[in-house]
Design brief:
Trefoil (Acidic Fibroblast Growth Factor, subunit A); 2 domains; 14 strands; Interleukin-1; mitogen; lysosome; inflammatory response; IL-1_CS
Length: 269
């Protein structure tokens, strides 16, 4: 690198700091203080000397020496790096601490409530559903005047979140209530296996939590036979069933129509 100072430019600013001897000056002036021990690697300086007026030449030489001294004391040039940008941002913004939290989230199923319908229900052995106690539903044969004891199902219909759980696959999400009561069937875990129970609730609304999925059953219709089954949404593969024996509680099974009855006929609205 070659550097040729402009003496005319440096002269005025440098002489404000130092004053030197001249041929026409009779008073003692302060001599320039030059530190020539400092070095700056990689910097080359080219000096040109020309003949001219003695006073002007002396002053220019002095200014040149001061300029050289200041140049040698300047820090070496350093290329701008990515780390310099990081340090610059750190000076502007306050540090922000982060903490990593390990967690998992499973999306809750969503069922949109649409409407409700009422049906009479019989299993394929012609047993009716009867509410024997406030929380006990049994299946038995009814004839004559006792036929009025049978209950109707109030079936709440829902629209599923995903198409594979919808009407196209024959799986219609429903909630099974007892007409005239605020009682709905629910499937909950009891010990190692699920069980069917009646709960007092009003779920004729959207189902948006895993907890309320216990009230949802998939209605699986067989149009050719005119029958249907009800599979638990909370426990897939488990179906609402009745016993082969009369006056037994309505329950749930994972072995439909083997030692029990899990197929029904619905009629009326």
């Amino acid at each position: 690198m070659a550097f040729v100072p402009d003496l005319d430019t440096l002269e005025s600013s440098s002489l404000n700091e130092e004053t030197f001897y001249g041929p026409n000056c009779l008073c003692l002036q302060k001599k320039p203080r030059l530190d020539l021990e400092a070095t700056s690697p990689g910097v080359g300086i080219q000096v040109m000397a020309t003949k001219g007026h003695p006073t002007r030449t002396f002053r220019r030489a002095a200014v040149l020496m001061v300029a050289i001294s200041k140049l040698l004391k300047r820090p070496a040039h350093k290329d701008f790096a990515d780390s310099d940008l990081g340090d610059f941002l750190d000076d502007i913004f306050e540090p922000v601490s982060f903490r990593r939290i390990e967690s998992s989230y499973a999306g809750a199923p969503v069922y949109r409530y649409t409407r409700s319908q009422s049906f009479d229900i019989l299993d394929i052995a012609q047993k009716c559903f009867v509410l024997e106690s406030p929380t006990q539903l049994v299946a038995l044969h009814l004839q004559g005047p006792s036929a009025g004891q049978k209950v109707k199902l109030n079936i709440a219909l829902y629209r599923p979140r995903s198409p594979q759980d919808g009407l196209g696959s024959g799986r219609v999400p429903v909630a099974l209530g007892i007409k005239g009561y605020q009682l709905y069937m629910s499937c909950v875990l009891s010990g190692a296996e699920p069980m069917l129970q009646l709960e007092e609730a009003d779920i004729r609304r959207d189902i948006e939590s895993v907890e309320l999925t216990r009230f949802i059953f998939y209605r699986l219709d067989s149009p050719t036979e005119g029958t249907t089954r009800f599979e638990s949404a909370a426990f897939p593969g488990w179906f609402i069933c009745t016993s082969l024996q009369p006056r037994q509680p309505v329950g749930i099974t994972d072995k439909p129509d083997q030692v029990n009855i899990a197929t029904y006929a619905l009629s009326g609205h």
